[in-house]
Amino acid sequence: MNREKLEILLPVLIINFIKRSIYKFRLLNYFMYDYRQYSKHSFGFTRKPTYENLRAKITLHYHSIEKGLSNINVRLGFGEKALKNLVHVLEEYKNCEFPKDDKRYLSAINILISYVDLHEKNNYDVPWIKGKLTEQLNYLGENQTKKMTKNHMPYREFTKKEIIESVNKPFDEFLKHRVSVRDYSTEEVDVNQINDAIEMAIRTPSVCNRQPWKVYVLKNYDTIQKASGVQKGLNGERRTNVRNLLIVTTDISYFANDKERNEPFIDGGLFSMTLLYALHYKGLAACSLNNSMSNKDFKEVKRIVNIRSSERLIMFISVGKYSDKLIVPTSTRDSLDDFVEYR
C-alpha cells in the first residue's frame, strides 16, 4: 500500500504520530552522524593531528597572545598558559614536518618575536619563551628567517575618524575597517542606534523567511557582568568596561523536522553577521564573542537574562562607542587560494 492510500485511510492524528516518530528516529541517527564526524575530525579529539588541525590550533593560541598585545594596558608577563600551548603546538607542527612557509605558522613565530621584543623593551625577562623562539628560528633556517617580517606588528592602529569615514567607502574598504573592538570609550551608546542596526539586520535572509531570531539588548550593568562572566569571552578590565551586550538567539519552535536541525545556527549566524555590519555602519564599535559554553552555562545565561527554553544562544556581541584611537589585533587572513577550489 503506497503513502497516498495510507493518508486517505488513516486519521490525521495517527499520520502525524507516525511522522513525528519517524522524525525523532532520523534525528537521533543524524545526531549520531554529527557526533561521529565531529569526534573524528575535530582537533580536540584526534590522536594524530592533521595539517588542518595544527593550523587551527596554532591560530587559536597565537590569536590569544595577539589580543593581549593589542591591549591598551598590556600587563607584562601575560599569557603564560596560552604561550605554553602555542609552543607545544608549534613543536607538534615542526615534528610533523609540515610546510615551513605556511602563513599561520609564520604568523605565530612573528607573534612570539613581538612578545619577546615588547618585554625586552620594558626590561622584563622572559628567558624560556625567548629560548623556544630561538629553537623555532633555527628550525626555519637563515633563508626563511630573512623572509619573515621581523617588524611585523601584532596589532593595527586606527583613529575613530578613519573608522567612521569608512562606512561611506566602497564595500571592500568598509569590510577592512569593520574590526572587533574590545576597548570602548566611556561615552554612552544611544539605544536608538542599536535599534536602527537591528532593524537593518532584519533584512537578513532566513529559511522560508521564517525569521527565527531574537536579540536581547542588555543595558543593566549587573546583568551584563553576570552574563558575560558565564560566557568568559572578555576578561578583566575589558569585561568591566562593557556597557552594552547583545545576545542573539534563534527559536527552535520555528523549525520543522530532523533535516532542519542546523538551520537555527545558519539563520542565526547570517543574522549576527548582518547585525555586526549594521552596527559598524551606524558608527558603533562591536566585538562578536564566542558561544563555546557547557549546557550548564547555557542554562545559567538563560536564567540570568530570562530567555525561553526553546531558544538557542547563537552569539554574544559587546557594543560601545569608539575611542579616539583604536588598537586591534592584526588577525592575518589566509589567501584566496586557501579557500577556493573549482570543480
UniProtKB/TrEMBL annotation:
Highest taxon in the source lineage: Bacteria
InterPro entries: Nitroreductase, Nitroreductase-like, Nitroreductase/BluB
SUPFAM superfamilies documented for this protein: FMN-dependent nitroreductase-like
Domain Nitroreductase, first and last residues per copy: 176-321
GO molecular function, one term: oxidoreductase activity
Name listed for the protein in its UniProt record: Putative NADH dehydrogenase/NAD(P)H nitroreductase
Lineage: Bacteria, Bacillati, Bacillota, Bacilli, Lactobacillales
